[in-house]
Fold each of these.
Amino acid sequence: MTSNAKWLQRLQAVECRDSSYNAKSDPLVFARAQGSTVWDAEGRPYIDLCAGFGVVALGHNNELQKRVFASSINHEALVTHGMGDVYPSIAKVEMLETLKAALPQHLSKGGLALSGGQAVEFAVKTAQIATGAKGFINFHGSYHGLDLGILPLTSRRDFKDPFRGWLPEDRVTELPFACDLSEVRKAIHAQKAAGFGCAAVIIEPIQGRAGIRPHGLDWLSGLAEICQKEKVLLIYDEVFTGLGRTGQITFAEMVPCDLLCLGKALGGGLPLSACFGRAEVMDAWPQNEGEGIHTGTFFGHPLSCRLGAETLRTIQEKKLPERSLILGEKLQGMLREKLQSHPLFADVRGRGLMVGLELREPLAGARLMDVLRRHGVIALASGDKGQGISMTPALTIAEEELVVAVQRIADALSEI
Ligand SMILES: Cc1ncc(COP(=O)(O)O)c(C=O)c1O
């Protein structure tokens, strides 16, 4: 049997140094997975509290995936690839219809892409076209992807400094997390006064990568009100929070937005993302008369669309958003009960099955993540200083699995 370490060695011989984590201890290479269990290359099982960055909402290798993949072998229509912006596939039509039906009525038109970053780029371009303005407002700690075009909107300097100057960053105003709303109004006015205008405010209703930091619903309502008054679009980046993980398909069910970005879980495990918006905003795009001005070869890939539409229907039919809220409360309760007496414990927070544990020291989360592998749990270090871990398991994870995982987190924390 080839060990995890040996696989990593082989990988490092062929892969860009930046592309995989060079874990110094207890390296982990995924070999197979089922539900919320992953087995490494040496056959060791782990409880997966990440679900592939929240992608496999129904669990790894779930029955739906197996059914869709198996039927693709004998179903000649399933992988009939359309021609992106020229000739659509039936699968794309059905995916967009299914998504529209799942979203609040005001978000009625959209388009598909492959990654979360591309969904954000779609929204950013839409906002520029719809408003004619070029400025954007984001928030400290935000993560909207690493594609060059949208890089200035991502907060972390280490992600963007090597590429400075590609886009004029002075057209992005970064405000403090959950700042006083008067600062938003001031920033909008400043961008208008500078002449390039303010196209949109972009926000993750719950910041994911920054360590699961929720914005309160009242604060979001206040933000939406300002955007409406100032005629600036409000973009929700729900690439992570969307599609049931945080208790609803989108926060726009509670506080409406103008544009919505979805990704990760959208393709049921395959690459698929979407930008949806108000019809009047999306209709700012010119009519495609044979060639779109925003397209990609694999946008709306038919297999992703089939699996995505079925996954979305299953999330709704099985009432997984509601389950996620209940189970998330329990998870937070268990974490607090088991961990709060530990000197490193700082906070547990989140909504639904998007839960963050914050510790008191920089890099403590990164250390915990490493020790957790030895205890058979996969969780991700998070926060701008690696001070916490984030948990975004499959929406189908069993409560008993969470009970075991919490005990292992407690055990691991006592070792760091
Ligand atoms: C909120 C948010 N937006 C955008 C992205 C970028 O998505 P992708 O990595 O698929 O480009 C992520 C990825 O983690 C995300 O969490």
Amino acid sequence: MAGYDDFAEIYDAWVQSVPLTKHNQAFYVAEYLKTAGTVVELGVGNGRIALEAVRQGKAVIGVDSSTVMLAQCRQRAEAAGMAETVTLIHADIRDFVLPEPAELIALPFHTIGHLVTTDDKCRVVRQVFDQLAARGRFLLDHFVFNPARARELDRAPRLRAEYTSATTGRDVLLWETSVFDVNEQTMRLFAWTDELEEDGSLAQRRYRRLTFSWLHTDQMRAIIEEAGFVIEHAYGYYDRRPLKDDSPEQVWVARKP
Ligand SMILES: C[S@@+](CC[C@H](N)C(=O)[O-])C[C@H]1O[C@@H](n2cnc3c(N)ncnc32)[C@H](O)[C@@H]1O
């Protein structure tokens, strides 16, 4: 997936500028640790969540289509001496196949939103159902679309982070803007880095683009149930407060009967 190969270099700086990432990491790590049996993270990325669970003693299988994100994950696991307890599979989450049925499959941090069509979202949920053991659980989340917040964010540039590039030693500004199409339920995200010379002139600007397509909570509930799952919990945030119309997030815990 070219989008994420391009994003890999700025992923950590970007994630650190999003406060909910600490909360989603804590939520998923707790769920992985309490699962007896195989845990799989779809869209494992550079291992931000999975490697923390591995560090705390739980083996994790990670699936991702970005070779660059997977390479980062592998390097981090090796550097931490944890390569034995993380298994990485290079595959598309719409048709991933596991060596054995899993007890838990997670699709964290809005990753279902990268599947832009409803057909593709249904496909991944059905594939998860297929790859789970009987009584296995499926965890996923997405933001809850908020029209007022979208109007505020739409096309507004935001400075996400300031840091020094490890490769060039230059100061870098990481910017982001989002362009919403409310009828199509899609958001195009542009993230760009400005690398500055000492005199403040622009040495280099580089854009990265990603597209998300959100589902409203009733649509998400429908695709989970249509695949055959029983929904055990619908949370409104990673602290497990109940899901409401004005919740910032939708966090689903579903079980294969
Ligand atoms: C938002 S990141 C999440 C990474 C990690 N789970 C975390 O929380 O930091 C989404 C990840 O999903 C991967 N991804 C997106 N679409 C995918 C697809 N169709 N198949 C496999 N991986 C995909 C991207 O490459 C990226 O690494």
